[in-house]
């Protein structure tokens, strides 16, 4: 398997015409690369996987009793798995809890388990609501645009990937 990049586009049809010719006794097969299509598909898959992983790591917890602290929530949710953070939202003027929090797990499986077990759970006399955080509600913005580069732009790494 080999990859050839031409300086002039006019050389491509000439190379394609070599299909079937023998080189060292072996017929040559020349075809157009599908690298750009494959690269775009791989990037889309990676982006979708990344977005899904992020979404399933973070939970919204609502109807939280106003006397509960971040440490209290950590103690309740940490048994499902390691946490990256607990963020209890507070009124900036009074410092009092606003009754909701965001909790992020290191592993999406742990977040899913916490969601299933804790949604509707009674905590400090209140039934809490637990749900997945979506990209819009978390303020995330995934920019998948590669910029204004037109056509196929390959660097050394992308050329190596072509060969695999």
TrEMBL record:
This is 17675_t:CDS:1. Residues 57-135 form the RRM domain. It comes from Acaulospora morrowiae. PANTHER family: SPLICING FACTOR (PAD-1), PUTATIVE (AFU_ORTHOLOGUE AFUA_1G15810)-RELATED (PTHR48036). Transmembrane segments: none annotated. GO terms for molecular function: RNA binding. Keywords: RNA-binding. GO terms for biological process: mRNA processing. GO terms for cellular component: nucleus. InterPro entries: Nucleotide-bd_a/b_plait_sf, RBD_domain_sf, RBM39_SF, RRM_dom. The keyword RNA-binding applies. It holds the Pfam family RRM_1. Signal peptide: none annotated.
């Amino acid at each position: 398997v080999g990859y050839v990049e031409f300086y002039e586009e006019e050389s491509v049809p000439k190379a394609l015409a070599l299909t079937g010719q023998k080189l060292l006794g072996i017929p040559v097969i020349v075809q157009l690369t599908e690298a750009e299509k494959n690269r775009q598909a791989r990037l889309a898959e990676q982006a979708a996987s990344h977005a899904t992983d992020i979404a399933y790591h973070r939970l919204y917890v609502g109807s939280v009793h106003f006397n509960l602290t971040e440490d209290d929530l950590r103690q309740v949710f940490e048994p499902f798995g390691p946490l990256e953070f607990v963020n209890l939202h507070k009124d900036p003027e009074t410092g009092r809890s606003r009754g909701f929090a965001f909790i992020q797990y290191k592993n999406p499986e742990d977040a899913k388990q916490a969601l299933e077990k804790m949604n509707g759970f009674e905590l400090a006399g209140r039934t809490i609501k637990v749900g997945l955080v979506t990209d819009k509600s978390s303020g995330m913005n995934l920019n998948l645009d590669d910029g204004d580069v037109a056509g196929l732009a390959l660097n050394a790494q992308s050329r190596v990937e072509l060969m695999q």
